[in-house]
Design goal:
- It is a single chain.
- This protein is α/β, with parallel strands linked by helices.
- It folds into two domains: 271 residues, 3-Layer(aba) Sandwich (Aspartate Aminotransferase, domain 2), CATH 3.40.640; 134 residues, Aspartate Aminotransferase, domain 1 (Alpha-Beta Complex).
- Helices cover 42% and strands 13% of the residues.
- It has a seven-stranded mixed sheet with strand order 4-10-9-8-7-5-6, sandwiched between helices. Strands 11-12-15-14 form a four-stranded antiparallel sheet. Strands 1-13 form a two-stranded parallel ribbon.
- The two termini are 23 Å apart.
- The structure holds pyridoxal-5'-phosphate.
Length: 451
């Protein structure tokens, strides 16, 4: 008998194939990425790092000769070292970094490692608040880092942009050890130049960006790169717009040297401080099968067609946003400049985000309920929903399908309005089922990659 785990994987394959994924932090990886992830590299322990000799400018065609030594705690690293170096090199090329640490198991681990690398307990970190669109790891009181460091937050303006006056005032007053720009629900392009201009007045502050959501757009050249504006460190996940395996990545500018040396805490030494903070500071053995898959995904993102992909993500999001606006949806910030759309579903149809999420699930459209910056309704019954276009763009959906999506979304919103509560949605099962069949028919025309 087949282990039921595999039956469930098959069921999930079917769910992904027959539905449309609108969660903005999800994507579909290629067959090559899946293959690397599922490889025998998972068998290997390789605590430590490959040699950094030759960085930057290390060439892929010299793989066979460039690994001179390593800083590993286990033998048998000759292949692993080359894979990790390849991954580091591709990440640096993709994002114009001097150094990449490709070992963080997730975006949360990457952020935690940067805080640990640069701050002492009690140090101040200035970041966007969670209600404004920041991430949990940027200071939410439920996290471990919020118990260690002193987080101060800035917000957004009513039109959905960063409240730069608030940010500047708090930065100058508090002189934080880290000034962090990053978010999970923010639809504008940050003014990195304006924020980096504060460096003159904050010489001891680490300027950090968490580009988890927009990494693929940066890689594709349709979004500015904070490292090009003088930010010291950029963290990211590798599985959202970047379309790699689930994981984290830390990029930085500065001295790249042996992680065995205990460096002084200077901004120039950030790469070494970060390496030591990831391992042994906050993690154990790296996941080399995931690092190989990151290398494959970065290789894909370095191809010219990834620029077309990322441009298409943004154009699809803009079309979808304007189609939603036409149908009476109120959008935070009035629309989008990236891949994300945040709908005030309460203001649009007088329903809450959770009932709408549940109803859309029933028709095969997946998104998530999300609080709005000024939400009074609490995290479990928020007034908004968040959606985005990275995954559907991977499948090849474009303008006509964006129109169709907006039509379905309006129909479902009106059914929720009529139902009034989640338990009464059952009265509209046949209407929902009709839409579900239409969604399935369209989804089957755009197969997911990798299966
Ligand atoms: C901006 C940002 N940072 C960090 C993370 C955390 O990433 P992970 O879920 O891989 O820990 C996320 C995930 O949604 C995110 O949006």
């Amino acid at each position: 008998m087949q282990d039921p785990v595999f039956n469930l994987i098959d069921a999930e394959k079917q769910r992904q194939s027959e539905g449309l994924e609108l969660i903005p932090s999800e994507n579909y990886v290629s067959k090559a990425v899946l293959t690397a992830m599922g490889s025998i590299l998972t068998n290997k322990y390789s605590e430590g790092y490959p040699s950094f000799e030759g960085t930057p400018g290390w060439q892929e065609d010299k793989i066979a000769t460039e690994i001179l030594e390593n800083y590993r705690y286990y033998g048998g690293q000759e292949n692993i070292d080359r894979i990790e170096r390849l991954c580091i090199d591709r990440a640096c090329r993709l994002f114009h970094a001097d150094h990449a640490n490709v070992q963080p198991h997730s975006g949360a681990n990457a952020n935690e490692a940067v805080y640990f690398a640069w701050c002492d307990p009690g140090d101040k970190i200035l970041a966007m608040s969670l209600p404004a669109g920041g991430h949990l790891t940027h200071g939410s009181p439920v996290t471990r880092s919020a118990k260690i460091y002193d987080f101060i937050s800035y917000g957004v303006t009513p039109d959905g942009d960063i409240d730069y006056a608030d940010l500047e005032e708090k930065a100058l007053k508090e002189q934080p050890k880290i000034l962090l720009v990053g978010y999970s629900a923010f639809m504008k392009i940050p003014d990195f130049a304006r924020i980096a201009a504060l460096k003159e007045k904050l010489p001891h502050t680490l300027f950090m960006a968490d580009m988890a959501h927009v990494a693929g757009l940066i890689a594709g050249g349709v979004h500015p790169n904070p490292l090009d504006f003088g930010f010291h460190v950029v963290t990211t996940t590798t599985h959202k717009t970047l379309r790699g395996p689930r994981g984290g990545l830390i990029l930085s500018k500065g001295n790249v040297a042996s992680p065995l040396k205990k460096p002084e805490k200077t901004l120039e030494n950030i790469p070494i401080l970060i390496d030591r903070a990831v391992f042994p500071g906050t993690q154990g053995g790296p996941l080399e099968h995931i690092i190989a898959a990151k290398a494959v995904a970065f290789g894909e993102a370095l191809q010219p067609n990834f620029q077309d992909y990322s441009a298409k993500i943004v154009s699809n999001a803009k079309i979808l946003a304007s189609e939603l606006l036409k149908r009476g949806f109120a959008l935070q910030g009035g629309g989008t400049e990236n891949h994300l759309i945040l709908v005030d579903i309460k203001a649009s149809f007088d329903i809450d985000g959770k009932i709408y999420e549940k109803a859309l699930d029933k028709v095969g459209l997946t998104l998530n309920a999300n609080a709005l910056p000024s939400d009074q309704s609490g995290a479990f019954r928020p007034s908004g929903v968040r959606l985005g276009t990275p995954a559907i763009t991977t499948r090849g959906l474009s303008e006509p399908e964006m129109v169709k999506l907006a039509e379905w979304m309006e129909k479902v919103a009106r059914l929720c309005q009529k139902a009034g509560s989640e338990d009464k949605l059952d009265n509209f099962t046949s209407d929902l089922e009709k839409i579900h069949l239409e969604v399935q028919t369209l989804a089957r025309k755009f197969p997911i990659p990798g299966v």
